[in-house]
Amino acid sequence: MGDTVTVIHGDKRVELPIVCSADGDPAIDISQLRAKTGMITYDPSLANTGICQSGITFVDGERGILRYRGIPIEQFTEKPDFVEVVWLLIFGRLPKRDELAEFSELLTENELLHEGMKQQFQRIPVDAPPMAILSATLTSLAFFHQEFLEVEDKESIVQAAARLISKVRTIAAFACRRSLGLPFMYPDPKFRYCANFLHMMFSIPYRQYVVTPEVEDALNLLFILHADHEQNCSTSTVRIVGSARANLFASCAAGVCALWGPLHGGANVEVIHMLERIHAGGISPEECVRQAKDKTSPLKLYGFGHRLYRNYDPRAKILKVACERVFARMNRKDPLLDTARRLEELALADPYFVDRKLFPNVDFYSGILLRAIGIPTNMFTVCFAIGRLPGWIAQWKEQHTDPSGKILRPRQVYVGPTETNYVPMSQR
Ligand code: SDX
Asked: Which of 191, 240, 256, 349 has its CA 20 to 30 A from that of 5?
């Protein structure tokens, strides 16, 4: 018998097996705990609870490590190719040249939206939140691609994944164009993945947007850094919805809704609002840090802190350098980058943040890079979702193809009224 832990309660002694990991924390297998002790565990934010075994992404929060299928993310920064990372996450290894070319071609084939879907944009209010549009439109892929409501073989999963990954750009761009009162720009098959998104976002009928290498690289890098992050809130949401054998479109649409929250993917928008407020003189950096420490203040230092990282988020490190590089190449400056650097400097010298091991996370600098590319602020979390989609799909596929998979159904500790009787209205 392998390693075990012993749980002793009263006159009961129960041995529970330990599940070893390839890297990172081992786990106590409590799947028989209730049967053997009549008790459950209590871990309300699931911070100590593994909901699955996964081989996709590894995060070491203490050491600030993030690896996709074992490859450190730092190794993708030289010549970032988001579609290559999409393939790696979903299929488990780096693609050969012909495999990557074939997958890129599949994405190109699926970049158009069904005209019926395009028309539904006309009934969406122009000021609709882009994340609401994204979630609703991803769900509506199930109207137009009903052949993928049940995907049981590998080829169907690949086809459904390609539709999602390719069309999410078109949906995002159309949502943005609608909010700006601009005509939709159709995808252009001559462009690579990120260049096509930039084309749909920024070209106008009589003037094609010129994609520069530094901007295309910056967007590939942004999407890569957001591509997966093990069992974060939105990915766990995708797993929970998918565990009911709900289709891939509905599962990813649910992930969009979870990502929307300001404590999660929505933080990249809150960071820019915070930096703009400081830059506009509404509040000083020092006051911003003071309010973030004040428990009576609703203000947080957005872009700081993390459920796992007790060290600098490796993605924030890369994004900070990328901001500086892109601005240098574009011969531009953004005062918000200086403000962000000042905030970081103040926080990392403040015992409140140091003692709690609060460091910049992926959202702290990502918005500044998106601004440099010209993406409107209200589209930042949508860009996070575009990047995260392959991670959601890979995690959904890993769970969906696991023959031992069960519906995810946590228990609770009940603290409500014990048995009581119904009281007729006349006696209340
Ligand atoms: C993402 O999980 C993932 O992997 C997510 C993500 C991904 O790739 O999917 O990495 C993406 O969501 C990054 C996080 C983006 N959110 C923000 O930037 C919002 C600001 N951050 C905080 O709200 C907070 O740090 C969370 C939500 C990220 C984490 O919340 P926790 O787990 O409650 O934080 P914690 O337990 O580490 O907090 C410890 C202490 C607490 O104070 P005390 O009770 O000890 O007095 O630190 C405080 C917290 O109040 N704290 C903050 C803070 N973050 C934590 N205080 C002020 N500002 C902050 N940002």
From this structure: 240
